[in-house]
Amino acid sequence: MIIGEYKTDYGQDEGIWNTWAKKLGFVVALLLLLLIPFIGNDYQLLMAGQIAIFVIAVVGLNVLVGYTGLMSLGHGAFFALGAYTTVALHQFFPHLFPLITLIISMVVAGFFGFLFGLPSLRVKGLYLAVATLSANFIVLFFIRQDWLEHLTGGRGGIETPNAYFFGTELITNQQKYFLIVPIAIVMFLFAQNLFRSRFGRALIAIRDNDHSAEILGISLFNYKLKSFVISAAYCGAAGTLWAYFFPAILPEDFGLNMSITLLICLVAGGMGRSLGPIFGTILILMVPELLKMGAFYFSEGNASAQIYFSPIRDIVFGLMIIGFLIFEPMGLVSIWDRFWRFINRWPFAK
Amino acid sequence: MLSVQEASLSFGGIHALSELTFEAKQGEITAIIGPNGAGKTSLFNIISGFYKPQAGRVFFQDQDITHARPDKRAALGIARTFQNIALFRGMTVLENIKLGSHSRLKSGLFDSGIYYGAARREEIALRNELERDVIDFLELDHIRNLHVATLPYGLQKRVELARALALQPKVLLLDEPVAGMNREETEDIARFILDIQERWNTTILLVEHDMSMVMDISDQVIVLNFGKQIASGTPKDVQNNPAVIEAYLGTSAKGAA
């Protein structure tokens, strides 16, 4: 039972962790994140790193799609820009400090976000989705060009550098985990803070009612473009960490497929909710792995049976997404909300 | 304070406003009345910036704002409410009201994202001020954390007024603030409007069909018909003006005494 108001000033009321349960939850989550690298094996850390990277990108997409209400199918391209900027930078400065690479990638991705965000001033909804779709093709087109091959590796992909942190090369997944997860936490909190103060409120206002937003002094031009830039910069940051995390990248890693995966993570988790990207990404990235394990278990290690199981895996995954959209259209966050509502009221009501 | 000079606005062949001129005086309540389609809301739209008049100018404190974007006008201190409630339905009452003060606040992207420091100080100062000047003033304290969509119509209208007030406006445009309200709610809103005028010396422009309220609270009444001004003056003058009676009630048919 978590009831009663014990706040004595408005500062407490404005806080994110305004109940002890939330505060405790955050501390427990941090402790768990600190524990994972010591108890997880290499495969589990691979998944954890991948999830953390995706969370950054989906949090960024959430700024645009969830909070500002602008559709985008082109965020895979900004991811690619981040990753390739990192690779290119390290060809000139092999031992560049990872945070500097991160910031440069964010600036590059943000700049392209600005360019591809320009149509949002004119068009909305599906039309904007189609306009942003072009980002995938244009960016990948240039990455595949032969005359850029020395920087990007062209069609064949390219090996990626490892990050050097004060002279130490981060090689194992455990070492990389300690680079990726703190950045993910900081970027998540930044976005969370954004939406409880002036800037983020303006974005939500644009989503809910753009006419009213304008009449209250919110420049649509300004805020829509900034929203695009922020979300693209988040994807750029995710791209940089991706390049550090995996041994090599291919242009195909970042196509339309990735743009859609990011969007699915967001929808499954809950759009316009701060925890949505985390839940959604964990679900969408973990379920195929669990299905893989399930298939392995049921086929009893029989290789030919596994071949038959793999298409079934995709079908089950697809059905699950459809099921989600039907039964939890507001995403996993609504289950979370129901859980807390129950805890808050227990034992007085269900 | 706020003046419109020879403003004309037409949509195709329909003249919503033709060469309309009037001035709202500092600290006064100016009511704009007229039959449906007389151009009242069009007038509000050219003042708040959604439409640009094809001819004529709009001045605010001797500054020509005819071509300023709506968000710039808000920053100058022009706030409005809408005839059909235009609140942010997904947000709570408090969030809606906070958005009203957007143009007065300063924290940008990085302040907001980092939060601790400038943005937090600003938020808490804002909260103190809004609680005192808006939420308490308009008697909204019991619903401040409810979602707007769950509120009854009358309260939603009041929240919209609160949101406009959070801008600390110099000019407040109220588009039918009591439409669809019962007597008691109407009296509440009329009281709030008079309180706003008295407390902040705000210039108020009011479009309203409730004649008893208009005649009770306004200092000046402007009557529009077919986009033209047919009368203006104190409520008493206007009530006895033959042109106004004709516009509202029609002329008596010849022979039918």
Nutshell version of this structure?
The complex is a heterodimer of chains A (350) and B (257). Chain A is an all-alpha fold.
Walk me through this protein's architecture.
Chain A has helices at residues 10-14, 20-39, 42-67, 75-92, 98-117, 125-144, 149-152, 173-194, 198-208, 210-215, 220-245, 256-269, 276-298, 303-327, 332-345, and strands at residues 158-159, 164-165, 168-169, 248-249. Chain A is an all-alpha fold. Chain A has a domain at 40-273. In chain A, helix 3 (42-67) packs across helix 12, helix 4 packs antiparallel against helix 5 and helix 4 packs across helix 11. The longest helix of chain A has 26 residues, at 42-67. Chain A is globular. The mean pLDDT of chain A is 91. With 257 residues, chain B is of the alpha/beta class. Chain B starts with a strand and ends in an 8-residue tail after the last helix. In chain B, helix 3 (93-100) runs parallel beside helix 6 (153-165). The A-B interface holds A 9-11, 13-14, 190-191, 193-194, 196-202, 204-205, 207-209, 211-220, 226, 230, 272 and B 48-50, 69-72, 74-75, 79-80, 82, 86-91, 95, 98-100, 102-103, 105-109, 111-115, 119-120, 122-124, 127-128, 131, 163, 167.
